[in-house]
Write a sequence for this structure.
């Protein structure tokens, strides 16, 4: 047989087709032979894996949405990763500074009362009400009554 | 609608109650310039003047009570000079309380404006001649111990702030030495505040010994003038039972004022550090 005849003969095989049932069974056999799993189980696994990938997609989407939502909360979340700052922590420090400063101002006002040797003059000039405190307020009241 | 109106009224009433500057009884408003209102009848003038005098005496009693409590709550060793002085001061305060209390009783039964004014003048004279000079020593005495307390609070805060800075430096969140300048400034302020407080305390507690007091004042002057570079004169000042030489502008009062001013300054720097740390950590 010459080469030409051989090619002609092979071309005839193109016309050969397996029947449909043989093709289906062969395909299943090939697929199941890879992991020694029956055809039925293979079909089940395919359905399961598709379901699993769908669940995974949902989960990833949910995580993505969650991250977007928490985007603005990144700043506050940072504090979770920082050490506890008892000294420079804003709230405690600010409230303590307010209390201390106000308290010192009251004490200084008490002390300064005694150096206001010209306080009678100052009071006669109608000092603003909010500057009067404690002893000054008493002096102011007495002056008003006397000058009535 | 009714509910909204009720809430609005409630909030308004709460605002009035919480505001110390709003008086419920207009006729006893202590700071109203009563003598400027020419439309008042004689009876109204009398009522207002009487209410003003009664309020002045009530406030004076409150002040005495506040100082008494301040003294009584402090713990001193029984045999200490502090305890001795506290005993004397509490006796003085009892005398002032008795005077104000009895005068308030008298004021409540007065029947005309002239009598109210005469009593107000008497109270004013008493305050100028007796109460104010007497209370000055008490306020200084109390202030020495208040300054000690507030300095302790400031030092505790400084320790916490220093620990935080060290922690952040160790973690590499801020550069080492970023707040060195502020830390040194705070340390200096608090150290000076403590020195001045001790000097004020020594002067107050040893005021009976004129010679010792003068030495202490000279020492205090040296400390203050190193920072303030002021020219100091030496006028004579009466202090209780004795007369000592006090350089101008250097008294327990001025020492305590500077000391307390330093503590306020330290807190300003604490707040600056706190703001700066938050900015550097991206927390603002």
């Amino acid at each position: 047989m010459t080469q030409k005849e051989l090619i002609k003969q092979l071309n005839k095989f193109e016309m050969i087709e397996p029947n449909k049932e043989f093709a289906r069974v062969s395909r299943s056999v090939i697929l199941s032979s890879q992991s020694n799993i029956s055809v039925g189980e293979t079909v089940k696994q395919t359905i399961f894996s598709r379901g699993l990938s769908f669940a995974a997609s949902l989960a990833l989407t949910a995580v993505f949405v969650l991250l977007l939502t928490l985007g603005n909360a990144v700043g506050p979340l940072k504090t979770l990763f920082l050490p506890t700052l008892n000294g420079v922590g804003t709230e405690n420090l600010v409230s303590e500074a307010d209390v201390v400063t106000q308290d010192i101002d009251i004490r200084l006002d008490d002390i300064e009362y005694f150096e206001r040797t010209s306080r009678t003059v100052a009071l006669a000039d109608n000092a603003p009400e909010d500057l009067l405190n404690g002893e000054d307020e008493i002096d102011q009241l007495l002056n008003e009554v006397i000058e009535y | 609608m009714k509910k909204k109106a009720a809430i609005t009224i409630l909030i308004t009433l709460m605002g009035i109650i919480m505001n110390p500057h709003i008086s419920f009884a207009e006729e006893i408003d202590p700071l109203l310039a009563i003598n400027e209102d020419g439309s008042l009848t004689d009876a109204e003038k009398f009522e207002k003047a009487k209410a003003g005098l009664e309020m002045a005496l009530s406030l004076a009693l409150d002040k005495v009570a506040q100082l008494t409590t301040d003294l009584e709550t402090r713990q001193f060793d029984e045999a200490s000079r502090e305890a001795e002085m506290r005993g004397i001061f509490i006796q003085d305060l009892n005398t002032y309380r008795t005077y104000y209390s009895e005068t308030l009783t008298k004021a409540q039964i007065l029947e005309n404006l002239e009598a109210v004014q005469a009593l107000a003048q008497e109270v004013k004279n008493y305050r100028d001649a007796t109460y104010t000079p007497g209370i000055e020593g008490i306020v200084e005495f109390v202030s020495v111990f208040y300054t000690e307390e507030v300095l302790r609070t400031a030092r505790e805060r400084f320790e916490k702030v220093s620990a935080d800075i060290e922690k952040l430096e160790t973690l590499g969140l801020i550069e080492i030495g970023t707040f060195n300048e502020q830390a040194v400034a705070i340390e200096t302020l608090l150290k000076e505040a403590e020195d001045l407080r001790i000097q004020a305390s020594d002067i107050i507690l040893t005021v009976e010994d004129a010679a010792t007091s003068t030495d202490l004042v000279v020492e205090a002057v040296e400390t203050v003038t190193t920072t303030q570079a002021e020219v100091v004169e030496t006028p004579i000042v009466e202090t209780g039972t004795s007369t000592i030489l006090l350089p101008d502008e250097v008294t327990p009062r001025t020492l305590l004022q500077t000391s307390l001013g330093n503590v306020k300054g330290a807190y300003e720097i604490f707040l600056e550090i706190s703001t700066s740390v938050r900015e550097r950590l991206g927390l603002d």
About this structure: Residues 39-69 of chain A form the longest helix (31 residues).
